Amino acid sequence: MRAFLWKGSSGSGYAKVSGFKFVSPRKRADWGFVVLHMNQALMLKHVWRILQQDPRSLWVAWVVRHKLRYQSIWATTPASASWCWKKIIKISSLLKRASNIE
């Protein structure tokens, strides 16, 4: 079903349905709820990779050097940061509350 809604077939092509329209809370409230949790899980995966300083990830190396400046993710204040980076910092507090990570 996913392949049909997004591409029409299993081959390449453009999406037939916009993702935002398909998961609209007005149409199906449960889809919006699932997408929100999936987004949080994927963002927490980024935070986890930053905390582990995954040596295979060029993105993590860049974040540690340029965004965190070799500090902890919780020592960073995103005052003049992009909205994406602010969201990653905000979601990291959820991980900190749920674990004993310092």
Care to describe what's here?
The protein is an all-alpha fold and 102 residues long. It has one domain (2-98). Helices cover 58% and strands 0% of the residues. The chain is built from five helices and no strands. The protein has helices at 2-6, 19-22, 29-52, 58-67, 83-98. The longest helix is centred in the middle third of the chain and has 24 residues, at 29-52. The protein starts with a helix and ends with a helix.
Q: Quick one: how many beta strands?
A: 0
Class based on secondary structure composition and strand pairing:
mainly alpha
Helical amount: 55-70%
Integer count of domains: 1
Gist of the model:
The protein is mainly alpha-helical. The protein has one domain. The chain has helices at residues 2-6, 19-22, 29-52, 58-67, 83-98.
Features of the shown structure:
globular; 5 helices; 102 residues; mainly alpha
What's the arrangement of secondary structure elements?
Elements: H1 2-6, H2 19-22, H3 29-52, H4 58-67, H5 83-98
Helix pairs in contact: 3-5
